Amino acid sequence: xxxxxxxxPGVGKGTQGERIxxxxxxxxxxxxxxxxxxxxxxTDAGLKxxxxxxxxxxxxxxxxxxxxxxxxxAGEGASFLLDGFPRNVAQAExxxxxxxxxxxxxxxxxxMDAPEENLLKxxxxxxxxxxxxxxxxxxxxxxxxxxxxxxxxxxxxxxxDDREDVIANRLHVYQEQTKPLLDYYQHQEGFFKLDAGGExxxxxxxxxxxx
Length: 211
Ligand code: AMP
Prior knowledge:
Elements: E1 3-6, H1 13-24, E2 27-30, H2 31-41, H3 44-54, H4 61-74, E3 80-83, H5 89-101, E4 108-113, H6 116-124, E5 126-129, E6 135-137, E7 156-157, H7 164-178, H8 181-185, E8 191-195, H9 200-210
Parallel strand pairs: 1-3, 1-4, 2-3, 4-8
Antiparallel strand pairs: 5-6, 5-7
Helix pairs in contact: 2-3, 4-5
Adenosine monophosphate binds at residues 9, 31-32, 35, 52-53, 56-59, 64, 84-87, 91, 161, 170.
């Protein structure tokens, strides 16, 4: 089974996507994580992407489409979950063409949504482990020891683009460019809406039912 999770920043695509992918044995292809790794490794794509990411803007389509195709092809037919890709209609069209080329298809497209107030609270409190990438939240899922990852003891940090000014820009970009994906996908087979405004475990139970 191949899945797409899409929705606004902070809705929980990463957290829920990682959990369901692990449980179902799918590769979790999170575009933001793939890009951040490329920035860290200073690859050509990473160097191109950095300024867009720092400003909360979308990285050019050609860059992200090529990166995601590489990941899908490298998976050699393993099930995958796309998180944060596609993020606009042009990317959705490029994805459809790419999947057809590789004789693959998407079985479920799940639109996660939550009130903007929840998104802001989630994004502003988010902490990430520098070593293993695991996510925490200052209020909702704090680490046992301040500043340290429960899993690997790595250092926790706040993403540059989780600052309030950049968050506002990301939410604006979402409304302008990603939300139109709803029109693109909602009449296609396998489309579902998921209310992701509730607590983590409640949302996960609803997601599991859909999958
Ligand atoms: P995320 O971790 O999903 O919040 O993504 C962080 C940042 O990576 C976004 O604000 C964009 O700058 C960039 N990004 C992630 N996914 C995409 C995409 N599909 N297209 C363009 N840029 C993206």
